[in-house]
């Protein structure tokens, strides 16, 4: 089945299927040693996808539709974001302060109905029909705090989560082959399948998440605003 935006919805739903262990987001800024290798693999796959699919892709600076609406990120993503913000703070403290201000405002708006523990920022594991419906409808109009509201570009682009690096091209997630609804307009199902992206063929991310949990106890998923504020 091919569905525009199924990759994005799948990212929201997958957090309801994982055990979080009830741990807080107090994780180190140091990612596992092979994390940079993972990013290189994903970015290489993205570059290849853009080369092969450029006629079908609408992605460009200033196109920020995928930056509106909350989605789940893992602990590796959270570590990279916090490290990126710390690095930015050293280079451009005013820009970093604006991100923090937006993140705090976002957390304030999202906390009342947060589907998890707003004190830690960890999402819950309730997989009931009601919980899934709540998650699917939760925060869909909330802009990412890392998105610059004037330029519509990412202020932490080099540190963005893996899902942000892979959204747009055709990608299989949770058994569905999906893509951004702005991409592959007019393409046949066969053309979409022919341009499928494979960002992590050896499942390195899964191995690194296990390595991180074994070494530090850090596990679970959150969303970007909470990762920046609660970390």
What's the short version?
It is built from nine helices and five strands. It is mainly alpha-helical.
Provide structural commentary:
The chain is mainly alpha-helical and 231 residues long. It has one domain. The chain is 45% helix and 6% strand. The chain has nine helices and five strands. A three-stranded mixed beta sheet has the order 1-5-4. Strand 4 and strand 5 form a beta hairpin. About 6% of the residues have low confidence.
Mean pLDDT: 88
Helix proportion of residues, in percent? Answer: 40-55%
- What proportion strand? 5-15%
Count of individual domains: 1
Total beta strands: 5
- Count the DSSP helices: 9
Q: How far from one another are the termini?
A: 38 Å
N-to-C SSE string, H for helix and E for strand: EHHHHEEHHEEHHH
Give unreliable regions as ranges. Answer: 14-28
Major sheet, described briefly? 3 strands, mixed
Major β-sheet strand ordering: 1-5-4
Going by helix content, strand content and strand pairing, the class is mainly alpha
Radius of gyration: 17 Å
Q: What would you call the shape? A: globular
